[in-house]
Amino acid sequence: MSAVDVALSPFHIESGYIHNRSESIVIYLTVAGSVIPMCILESDSIASVKLRIQTCKGFLVKKQKLVFEGKELSRNNSLVKDYGVSSGDVLHLILRVSNFLVVTVESAFRKEFEFQVDRFRNVGYLKQKIAEQAKGFAFINVEDQEILCNGEKLDDQRLIDDICKNRDAIVHLVVQKPAQICSKPAKRDLEIYVDSHVNEEGIHKKSPNVGFPLQPVIINPNLKFSPAIWSMLASATEGLKKWKNPIRSSEGTGGAYFMQHPSGNKYVAVFKPIDEEPMAVNNPRGLPPSTDGEGLKRGTKVGEGALREVAAYILDHPRTGPRSIDGEPETGFAGVPPTIMAKCLNSEFNHPHGYDGGPENIKVGSLQMFVKNYGSCEDMGPRDFPVEEVHKITVFDIRTANADRHAGNILMSREGGRIVLIPIDHGYCLPENKDIDLLSSFGWDLSSECALTLRISTMLLKKGASKGLSPFAIGSIMCRETLNKESVIERMVQKAYDSLLPGMSEAVFLETVSKIMDSELDNISLRLV
Ligand SMILES: Nc1ncnc2c1ncn2[C@@H]1O[C@H](COP(=O)(O)OP(=O)(O)OP(=O)(O)O)[C@@H](O)[C@H]1O
C-alpha cells in the first residue's frame, strides 16, 4: 500500500486508547491533499502522536514533520498542549520521502545487481545506468536496450516515477544483440524489479522550458567567484540550455530543485527559491503562508532562508582564516558546500499563478553546489562517523546558532575510503533571539541582531572550549530543555540586558555578557567535574 492510499482513510479511534475522555481532542491532519481526523490526548507527547501516525498510516516517525500555525512541532518530548494545540485544530504533516528508488536487475534465475536511481529520472537514464552497472559481467549498449512494461515499450522520455507510482513495478529489459564482452554467460532477457517506496508528490509536470540563463546575483562587484563556483554556474546554465530541466526534490519542506549537468547524467547544484521557502507564498508543500512573517523556526523570517544559506558558506571560514573576496579557498572548516545567490527562470519551478516566462516568473534563491553523497546520516548509525567530522559540524552549528541541525541535514560522502560528513540546509542559522530583539530599542536593526547572535555564540564556543567543556555540554547551554524553559544562554543574555543602562554601547553589552558567561561556565565546569 502506498503513502497516498493510506493517507485517504481516516484514523480509527482504537478502543482502549482514550483513557481519559475529558482530555481527548480531535485534530485534523492534512497530508498529500487529504484531511484526516485523529483523536489524541492533550497530554500526548509529540513523539507519541508521531508514533500513532506511524502505526496507523505507515509513515516512519523519522520521516514526519508536524507543523501547527506556522511552527514546527520539533520537540518530541513536549506535549501537544505545550504547543497550544486544541480540539478542531489543523496540523500539517510533511513527509520526507527519499528521491531514490532501488532498482534490482534479475535474470530468469537469480538476482544480478542492484543500484539506486532518482525517481524523477527517465527511462533513457535508466538504460544508461544499466549499461554502466552491467559492465562487470556483460556488455549492454544503451541503444541495444528496450524496456517494456505490461508488454508496452517504454519511451526514453517516460519518468521512472510514472512507471512505479504508488507500487512496486516489474519491467522487462530486452537486449537486442547478444552480449559482446562478458565474464559470465550473456543474458538476452533481464527482468528488472523496481522497488518503489512511498511517494506523496504529484505528477511531475512536463512543460516547455523557456530558456533563461541562470545568473548569479552580484551585490558586491569586487567579489570574485572561485573557479568551482563558475564551473557550477556554467554546467547548470548549459544543462538548462539543453533542456535538462530542474528536478524538484521530494525531500524537504520548501522547494529545492536539482539543477542538471548538460549530459543529464548528474546533478550540479541545488536551487532553493526564496518564494518557495516553508511558509512563503509559493511554497509547493501546501504549508500556509506565514501570517506574521516569522518562519518555521522561532527567530527566523520567511524569505531569508536563501540569504542564511549563503551566509553559512561565507561564515564557514577555511582553516587559513576568512575567505578572501577572490573566493579562494572554497572549502571551509566545516565543509559547507559553496553557495551563492542566483536568479533563474524556468517553468518547472512552482508557479501557482501561471507561467508565461515573463519577469514575474523569475525566481531568486540560493544556489548550492551538489555534493555526491551516499544518503544522509539518518540512514546510518553514528558509530562509524569520525569524531573530527562530528566536531567540525558542532563547532559550525554553535557559532552560527543553527536552529535546524538533524541527521537528515548531514550528507555522507567518502574521501579515500574515509567517511566525510557534509552539512547542508542552513536556512535557519543565525536566528534573531527574542531577548536580543528587545535590544532594537537601543538602535540595533535586523542585521546587527544577527551579528550579535553570531558574536555571542562564537564567544560561548571559545570560552566553553577553553574551559574544557565538550561539544555536547556547550550545545546543551544553547538548547531549551523544554519548550517554555529558557536555555542557559538565553538567561545569560537576559541578565546582561537587565543590567544595561540606557545609551550603553554594544561593546559594553558584550563585555557584560562575557563576564556573566565566565562565571556561569565556571559553575557548569565545576558541576561536571
Ligand atoms: N548541496 C547538496 N548536495 C546534495 N544534495 C543536496 C544538497 N542540498 C540539499 N540536497 C538534497 O536535497 C534535499 C532537500 O534539501 P533541503 O533538506 O536542504 O531542503 P529544505 O526544504 O530546506 O529541507 P528541510 O525541510 O529539512 O528544512 C535534501 O534532503 C538533500 O537530499
Tell me the fraction of residues in β-strands, as a range.
15-25%
Q: For the CA atoms, what is the radius of gyration?
A: 26 Å
Beta strands, count:
19
Q: State the helicity in percent bands.
A: 25-40%
The first-to-last residue Cα distance is 53 Å
* Coarse morphology: globular
| Helix/strand/pairing category | alpha+beta
| Mean pLDDT over the residues | 80
Low-confidence stretches: 1-10, 12-18, 178-191, 193-211, 434-446
Cofactors, ions, other ligands: adenosine-5'-triphosphate
Report the biggest beta sheet as strand number plus sense, adding barrel if it closes.
6 strands, antiparallel
> How are the strands ordered across the major sheet?
7-6-11-10-8-9
Q: How many domains, as an integer?
A: 4
Our count of helices gives 12
